Amino acid sequence: MTPQPETQAVIDAEIAATAHAYEQAGVEETQPRVDYAPYRSSLLRHPTKDPHHADPEGIELWAPCFGERDIDPLEADLTIQRGGEPQGEKMLVTGRVVDGDGRPVRRQLVEIWQANAGGRYIHKRDQHPAPLDPSFTGVGRCLTDDDGTYSFTTIKPGPYPWRNHLNAWRPAHIHFSLFGTDFTQRMITQMYFPGDPLFALDPIYQSIVDPKARERLVSTYDHDLSVPEVLMGYRWDIVLTGSHRTPLEEEDHQ
Amino acid sequence: MSTLTATPGQTIGPFFHYALPFDGDRELVAPGTPGAVLLHGTVTDGAGAPLQDALVEIWQADPAGVVPQRTGSMRRDGHTFTGFGRSSTDITGRYTFTTLEPGSVDGGLPFFGVTVFARGLLNRLFTRAYLPLDGAEPDALLTSVGDRAGTLVVERDEHGLRFDVRLQGEGETVFLTYPGHS
Ligand SMILES: [Fe+3]
C-alpha cells in the first residue's frame, strides 16, 4: 500500500515550529538551512557535520573567467531564441552583482533557467501537464558589465506543482547561477516575484528561516524599467560574499 | 571586512539539465591529450543511494601550478586550458572529468576546488579533492580535519583519479566554509 501523501497542513506546522524556534534562539541566520525537513528531499541529502573552516588558498582565491568567446549576446534574450514570440507576460529582469564589500563583480557569467508562463520546464522529467511553448526554452546566459549589471529579457514564469506533499506548488521563480571573483563566491539561487501568495507554503523558500534574508530573493517591480506597450521591468540585485584578494592583487592581475 | 549580507542560496532543483550542461563541459582537455587523466566519482546520499540529479564543478590550476585566467570554458578551442569543468551526474550518480593533474600553487599541496549542487541540497557545498600525498606532509587543513582527511584525497584507480562525494552518513565528505560565509 502506498502511503498517503502528507497534507499542506503537516508541512505548514513543521515550517511554523522551525520559525518559532528560530525566533526564540535569537541568532541571525542569513543562508538557507541545509537540514530542513519540510523539504523532504533534503532529509538524506544534507551533511550532518558542520562545515569545516578553511582559509582560501591557491586556486580558491581566483575564479574561472568567461568572455565574449563563451557567450553570444543574444543568449540574454529568452524571447527570441526560437523565432516566435513566447506566450506570457514579457519582462526585463536586471540588477547588479556585487561582492560583500559592494564592489561590482565585472565581466562574470550569469546563467538562468525557468519554467514557461504555464509553469512547465523543457525537461524530460517535468511531469506537469501544462503545455510546452514551442517559442520558449527558458535558458539564458549573459556576462555582467563593468558595473556588475546583468540583464535578461524573458517572460514571467508560472508557478508549478511538485510532489513534496499533497497540493504542493512552487512560487514563480527564476533559477540563477553566479560566479564571483573568487571560487568561494560560487552560488546558485532562485529569484522570486513580489507578493507571491505561495511564499508561506513553500518549504524551499522557507528553508531560509530568517524573514529578512528570504526577502533578499524577492525582486521588485520597477516601473521605470517597464517599456511602454512592450514589457514589465523587475530589478533584483545580488550580493556575493566578500572577496579574499586585496584590491592591489586584482590590479596586478589585470 | 564585509559590509553587505550575502544573498541566500537555494537548491539547484531537478530541472537544470537543459540549462547548465554544455558541450565539452567535462572535458578540460580532449581525451588522449598527453597527461590527460580521468577524475571521476559517485555522489551518494545518507542511505548510500546515488544522486542522479547532482552537478559537480571543478576549478583547478594547470600542471605547472599556474592559475588559469583564460576565457573559453563554454566554447573550448581544443588547446586552451581554462581550469574549469562542470559535470552532471548520470543515472548511477557518477560524474567524470577529463583533465590534467593540477600542480602546486604557491607551494601548497595540489588540489581541485570542488563545488557540489543537487536537488534536495538547499545550498551549494564546497570541498577540496587533493592529489594523493605520495609521502608529502599533510597541510594545515588536512591535519585539522583529523581522521576524516581521507575524504578529501583522491585515490588512484584503474580509470584515473577517483573522488567520491558522500553527502551524509558513513564516510561523510568534509565540506568547507570560508571566511565571509555564514
Ligand atoms: Fe524551478
From TrEMBL, chain A:
Keywords: Dioxygenase, Oxidoreductase. Pfam families: Dioxygenase_C (PF00775), PCDO_beta_N (PF12391). The keyword Oxidoreductase applies. Its EC number is 1.13.11.3. PROSITE patterns: INTRADIOL_DIOXYGENAS. It comes from the Bacteria. One of its GO terms (molecular function) is protocatechuate 3,4-dioxygenase activity. InterPro entries: Intradiol_dOase_C (IPR000627), Intradiol_dOase_core (IPR015889), Intradiol_RC_Dioxygenase (IPR050770), PCDO_beta_N (IPR024756), Protocat_dOase_b (IPR012785). Residues 93-121 form the Intradiol ring-cleavage dioxygenases domain. One of its GO terms (biological process) is 3,4-dihydroxybenzoate catabolic process. Transmembrane segments: none annotated. The keyword Cell membrane does not apply. Belongs to the intradiol ring-cleavage dioxygenase family. This is Protocatechuate 3,4-dioxygenase subunit beta. It comes from Nocardioides bruguierae.
From TrEMBL, chain B:
It comes from the Bacteria. Transmembrane segments: none annotated. GO terms for molecular function: ferric iron binding; protocatechuate 3,4-dioxygenase activity. InterPro entries: Intradiol_dOase_C, Intradiol_dOase_core, Intradiol_RC_Dioxygenase, Protocat_dOase_a. Keywords: Dioxygenase, Oxidoreductase. Its EC number is 1.13.11.3. Residues 31-104 form the Intradiol ring-cleavage dioxygenases domain. It is an enzyme of class 1 (oxidoreductase). Belongs to the intradiol ring-cleavage dioxygenase family. PANTHER family: DIOXYGENASE, PUTATIVE (AFU_ORTHOLOGUE AFUA_2G02910)-RELATED, PROTOCATECHUATE 3,4-DIOXYGENASE ALPHA CHAIN. NCBIfam families: protocat_alph. This is Protocatechuate 3,4-dioxygenase subunit alpha. It comes from Nocardioides bruguierae.
